[in-house]
Design goal:
The chain has 124 residues and is α+β, with helices and mostly antiparallel strands. It contains 6 helices and 3 strands, in the order αααβααββα. It has a single domain, classed as Arc Repressor Mutant, subunit A (Orthogonal Bundle). Strand 2 and strand 3 form a beta hairpin. Helix 1 runs antiparallel to helix 3 and helix 3 crosses helix 5. The protein is globular, with a radius of gyration of 16 Å.
Length: 124
């Protein structure tokens, strides 16, 4: 769990750096992030944004679909299913607290679980 937390924090830091630098000249950090993104696409056929969603994937977690649509994140999540890393389940449900809406779950497949384990260490 500690390794997964570190990996998620590292990916978040990369994305914050990317967004903070948007509109600024490309520096060495942006070049490194761009190179890392290209390597992820080359090796895994998904970009870093999709990889971020894979690292946080859990069959026990439900995500509201509407904010994902507004933030243009569904493509990154759907890429996981397209490449066999996760199964996406969508349903309309009412959650505790009376929240009702379309929810989705990102359930890692065995292939996705192996990627997660390689990046974070095996689940204990």
């Amino acid at each position: 769990m500690k390794n997964m937390t570190c990996a998620v924090v590292l990916l978040c830091a990369i994305f914050f750096a990317m967004h903070a630098s948007a509109g600024q000249e490309d520096g060495p950090d942006m070049k490194a992030v761009s190179d890392l993104d290209q390597q992820a696409i080359k090796v895994l056929n998904i970009d870093l944004n999709s990889l971020r969603w894979l690292l946080g994937a859990s069959c026990g977690s439900y995500l509201l679909q509407e904010p994902l649509v507004k933030e243009n994140q569904l493509g990154a999540i759907e890429a996981l299913q397209k490449n066999g890393y996760a199964k996406i389940e969508v349903g309309v449900d009412e959650m505790p607290g009376g929240i009702r809406g379309a929810f989705l779950r990102i359930c890692p497949t065995e292939k996705g679980r192996r990627i997660i384990d390689l990046l974070t260490g095996p689940a204990r």
